[in-house]
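Q: What would this complex look like in 3D?
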Amino acid sequence: EPEVTQTPSHQVTQMGQEVILRCVPISNHLYFYWYRQILGQKVEFLVSFYNNEISEKSEIFDDQFSVERPDGSNFTLKIRSTKLEDSAMYFCASRDGNQPQHFGDGTRLSIL
Amino acid sequence: GENVEQHPSTLSVQEGDSAVIKCTYSDSASNYFPWYKQELGKGPQLIIDIRSNVGEKKDQRIAVTLNKTAKHFSLHITETQPEDSAVYFCPLPGGGGSARQLTFGSGTQLTVLP
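A: Here is my prediction, written as structure tokens for the whole assembly.
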């Protein structure tokens, strides 16, 4: 069964540095999402992306964050000038048409 | 996003028993109701979903029932096994369809005791 894959599984970064989290959505999917889950808290929506542009974003997704689909297979989340509170699991999801979202297993981001 | 209440927050059952988790929603326009399972260290995985034109759907040991009048839908797991231990979510999409962002609650931590 096709899967959403995310790399790396664990990313350790110094505070203030930039980090790029990578996702390969399911190949025929057109809608892409990023969510995050701070340890012990709820999964929170960050941003959705369709037709090469952001379609929705939450209050969390401020100027520190950006997303990009640099080619036909990857979907990336960039976090600039990372802060300690950016430490979380980041999940990518994708879907096709009016179908449910499928999630990857996440990237654990640790900011030191 | 949709306002959803999920109960219970934790549930422990003996292996082989049934487990039921209930979600109550507020938007009568909601027409798509998914259930996700999140195992430790993994992403949420869709286990079953239902659309508003049906009242029940079953897939082996898992079933979902929908009561549109009362605005609640429930996950039923029969003959529970230790591998069913996980956090279960009923994140309704904003706007009622499956298209929009999912709003996750705190979930239900299910523990199946051997």
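A: To summarize the key features: The mean pLDDT of chain A is 94. The radius of gyration of chain A is 13 Å.
Q: Very helpful, thank you.
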